[in-house]
Write a structure and sequence with these properties.
about 220 residues; alpha+beta; L-fuculose-1-phosphate Aldolase; six-stranded antiparallel sheet; two-stranded antiparallel sheet; 7 helices; about 15% strand
Length: about 220
């Protein structure tokens, strides 16, 4: 059976891989963080190390009751709030940063945004932990007032998809606003797309991915 140490090393490797992908897409700056649920706690990256430069030594295991930084407490609170979530990515992306400075929510103008995020992604009223959790209510992604994006996923891949779609949606909205009024996807259509994605396609795909992190015979 896979030992806990091997499980942790496997998770670290996946986070390092995703960190490099985010950097390649110019969707990461110093201070960005990734965490994964680990038992009653989390395994989280060091915010002082850019995601593209992570090594297996740049992680911290945090347990409930530990003294935590504000950022560590945020990751812990998000995974406590989103019971189905197992991974959180908080990153800084160019177009999402533009939106957070001008709007209180980012509407869906793309089908994949509506499917994965929903009708809109809220911008938290402040950087306060409670305000961020409120922005996440009934959603698995939001924008933070400080210009960061946040996505929760049942797997790291799902959280990665969330931040990618947030930036793609923000870029489409900003660029279409410059050209003319963007055509937003209706509430009913967005809710329907999101329901189908979560209950049918995504559920099956994420179950397969979750199996990779379960104990198995070597």
């Amino acid at each position: 059976m896979m030992t806990e140490d091997k499980m942790i090393e496997k998770i670290k490797g996946k986070i390092i891989e995703i960190g490099k992908l985010l950097a390649e897409e110019d969707l990461s700056k110093k201070g960005d963080t990734v965490s994964v649920r680990l038992g009653d706690g989390i395994l989280m990256t060091d915010p002082n190390i850019p995601l593209a430069e992570l090594t297996d030594k740049d992680f911290k295991q945090i347990l409930r009751g530990d003294n935590m930084s504000i950022l560590e407490a945020l990751h812990m609170a998000v995974l406590g709030y989103k019971k189905e979530g197992n991974a959180v990515i908080i990153n800084q992306a160019p177009y999402c940063s533009i939106v957070t400075g001008k709007m209180d929510r980012l509407p869906a103008v793309l089908d994949d945004f509506a499917q994965i995020v929903g009708y809109s992604a809220k911008v938290s009223k402040s950087d306060n932990l409670i305000d961020i959790l409120l922005a996440l209510k009934k959603r698995n992604a939001c924008l933070i007032q400080n210009g960061s994006s946040l996505a929760v996923g049942r797997t790291l891949e799902e959280a990665f998809t969330g931040v990618m779609v947030l930036e793609k949606g923000a870029k489409a909205f900003v660029e279409s606003t410059i050209i003319g009024n963007p055509v937003k996807i209706g509430l009913f259509d967005s809710l329907l797309m999101n329901f189908i994605y979560k209950k049918k396609y995504s559920k099956k795909n994420q179950k397969n991915l979750l199996e990779q992190f379960k104990e198995k015979e070597e």
